[in-house]
């Protein structure tokens, strides 16, 4: 059975029996045998599903950034991280915990490693934003598709073509133009932003292996659990609790927007490789700029149009390359 095929229903027909790999919210994929075609399964084309999941996740990550920005400065990095991660654990257990052991998955060691690298990327990015101008931190951090391509080669032996390299660099240049990149701030902040990009690149690369047998829920559950363990000690020393109703709204917004975005992103990696997903996820910076223009009165300068169009064009070109690369018959199920 080809677990690399980008289809909702995986099947290998032998006479009249079809072996199908079906998604499960915790256990990922379960192999089951059916006579004939599986009912109730909606075919999804990888060329559509991958970008759709990633763009939806990027939009919700933009909403997450807004909630974090609106939260008062009295909330520290550890407070924001703890509420995000611990809240995610509570939500997932409340919704899915009645179906048995929620931590039962495949390749527990890799799930834990992915949780640690994802938590490290989040902490590095938020810390870098506190130490650097936001534009500098985000441009350095969004180099993570480059690191994802590097890790894909080192771990899986994947080779990235020159046109894919051009698309990835196009996104990075577009982000730099959009945010008027200048290498400002101290070395520590720059190093943390780069380290966050490295961790993020490794994280999205590891999801490829995890998505073969684990669903998006259990991947996010381990991520939130490890993030809770990392942020809990510092939060417990000097906890900052939400007091006003607006602060509670911001905290709940952080929890639910991050949970939904992460689940969509994890599912999106079922249809595309890590560095490809990173290119599509870079649209988050365009969504963030649009929000600033529409709701915060930021000017729509030439940088917005030039950088946004470069990111958009790179994403479209990447998707066309993915479509042309797929073998015949690999589209929908």
What would you say about this model in short?
The chain has 333 residues and is mostly helical. Helix content is 67%, strand content 6%.
> How much is the average pLDDT?
76
Count of helix runs: 12
Tell me the span between the first and last alpha carbons: 14 Å
Q: How many structural domains can be distinguished in the coordinates?
A: 1
Q: What structural category do the secondary elements indicate?
A: mainly alpha
The number of E-state strands comes to 3
Strand content: 5-15%
Strand order of the largest sheet: 1-2-3
> Helix amount, in percent?
55-70%
Low-confidence stretches: 1-41, 327-333
Largest sheet: 3 strands, antiparallel
Overview of this protein structure:
The protein has one domain (45-325). Helices cover 67% and strands 6% of the residues. The chain is built from 12 helices and 3 strands. Strands 1-2-3 form a 3-stranded antiparallel beta sheet, with no helix packed on it.
Q: What are the salient characteristics of this protein?
A:
disordered C terminus; 333 residues; mainly alpha; 12 helices; 67% helix; 3 strands
Chain-wise SSE layout:
Layout: E1 10-14, E2 17-24, E3 28-35, H1 46-70, H2 77-96, H3 108-131, H4 134-141, H5 144-156, H6 162-178, H7 187-210, H8 216-237, H9 245-268, H10 274-281, H11 283-295, H12 302-325
Antiparallel strand pairs: 1-2, 2-3
């Amino acid at each position: 059975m080809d677990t690399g095929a980008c289809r909702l229903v995986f099947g290998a027909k032998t006479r009249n029996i079809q072996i199908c790999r079906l998604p499960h919210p915790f256990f990922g994929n379960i192999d089951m045998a059916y006579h004939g075609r599986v009912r109730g399964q909606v075919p999804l084309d990888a060329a559509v599903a991958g970008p759709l999941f990633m763009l939806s996740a990027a939009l919700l990550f933009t909403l997450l950034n807004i909630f974090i920005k609106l939260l008062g400065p009295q909330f520290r990095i550890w407070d924001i991280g703890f509420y995000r991660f611990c809240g995610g654990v509570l939500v997932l257990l409340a919704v899915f915990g009645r179906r048995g052991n929620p931590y039962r998955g495949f390749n527990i060691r890799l799930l834990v490693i992915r949780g640690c690298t994802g938590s490290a990327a989040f902490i590095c990015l938020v810390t870098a934003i506190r130490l650097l101008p936001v534009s500098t931190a985000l441009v350095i951090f969004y180099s993570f598709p480059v690191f994802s391509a590097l890790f894909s080669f080192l771990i899986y032996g994947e080779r990235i073509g020159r046109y894919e390299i051009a698309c990835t660099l196009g996104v990075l240049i577009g982000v730099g133009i959009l945010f008027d990149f200048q290498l400002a701030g101290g070395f520590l902040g720059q190093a943390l932003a780069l380290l966050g990009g490295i961790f993020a690149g490794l994280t999205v690369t590891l999801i490829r292996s995890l998505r073969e047998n684990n669903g998006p829920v259990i991947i996010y559950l381990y991520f939130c659990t490890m993030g809770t363990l990392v942020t809990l000690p510092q939060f417990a020393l000097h906890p900052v609790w939400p007091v006003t109703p607006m602060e509670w709204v911001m905290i709940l917004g952080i929890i639910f927007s991050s949970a939904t975005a992460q689940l969509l992103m994890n599912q999106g990696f079922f249809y595309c490789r890590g560095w490809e997903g990173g290119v599509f996820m870079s649209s988050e910076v365009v969504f963030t700029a649009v929000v600033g223009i529409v709701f915060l009165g930021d000017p729509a300068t030439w940088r917005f149009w030039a950088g946004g169009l470069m990111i958009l064009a790179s994403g479209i070109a990447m998707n066309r390359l993915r479509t042309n690369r797929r073998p015949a018959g690999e589209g929908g199920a």
